[in-house]
Amino acid sequence: DIQMTQSPSSLSASVGDRVTITCQASQDISNSLNWYQQKPGKAPKLLIYDASTLETGVPSRFSGSGSGTDFTCTISSLQPEDVATYYCQQFDNVPTWTFGQGTKVEIK
Amino acid sequence: EVQLVESGGGLVQPGGSLRLSCAASGIIVSRNYMSWVRQAPGKGLEWVSVIYPGGSTFYADSVKGRFTISRDNSENTLSLQMNSLRVDDTAMYYCARELAGHFDLWGRGSLVTVSS
Asked: What are the residues whose beta carbons fall under 8 Å from the beta carbon of B24, sequence distance 6 or more?
């Protein structure tokens, strides 16, 4: 099974800060990596798919990069509405999908 | 409006059964790859099961042999029959559409609590 490891598990940053979340796969998954945002009490929302493609309607301050085993999700200028938990998810070995353990983002 | 609405959750004793449903509007369930994804309280996301347009079904090892995914084409609904429930099956269960590897459409979830 492919394991996904996110870091950090939580972070606190100021409004306007650049925030980077990393996700590491236990084996090469090419660009088969998606990112989701989940706000408290809500369903997850797709942010980025295929490692770097922004889902329609997602603000341009979000971006994704990486391939192989190492990936990043970046918020270029943190906003109060970005407070959420972020998850990466691999789809290299469908029909099994695996999520990272999540990164909780808070405002300092 | 395109949406998925789950129902059927509740409190059940260990060893019991429960059936979740997901009513779809704006999409045709039988033409899509439909999954169930769960989230234990305070924990991360775990994919549970998928049904393909052709009818093939797949399960996570943690639920294989206990859960059954199905769909009703006439009602445009997705279901998850859960048997032999365990305490660690306690979670919010989401139905979601899978599109080229990513889950682009999610319901609001249905809470299943397994406790004596």
From this structure: B3, B4, B76, B77, B78
Which of B50, B102, B109 is nearest residue A34 as measured by Cβ atoms?
Answer: B102
A to B CB pairs, distance under 8 Å: 57
Rounded Cα distance, A41 and B26, in Å: 24
Q: What is the pLDDT of residues B79-104, one digit of tens each?
A: 999 999 999 999 999 999 999 999 99
> To the nearest whole number, what is the mean pLDDT of chain A?
97
What is the rounded average pLDDT of the residues B3-13?
98
C-alpha pair distances (Å), B15 with each of A22, B86, B87, B114, B115: 39, 6, 9, 9, 10
Q: Are B26 and B3 in contact (CB under 8 A)?
A: yes
Given a cut of 90, whether residue A93 has pLDDT beyond it is: no
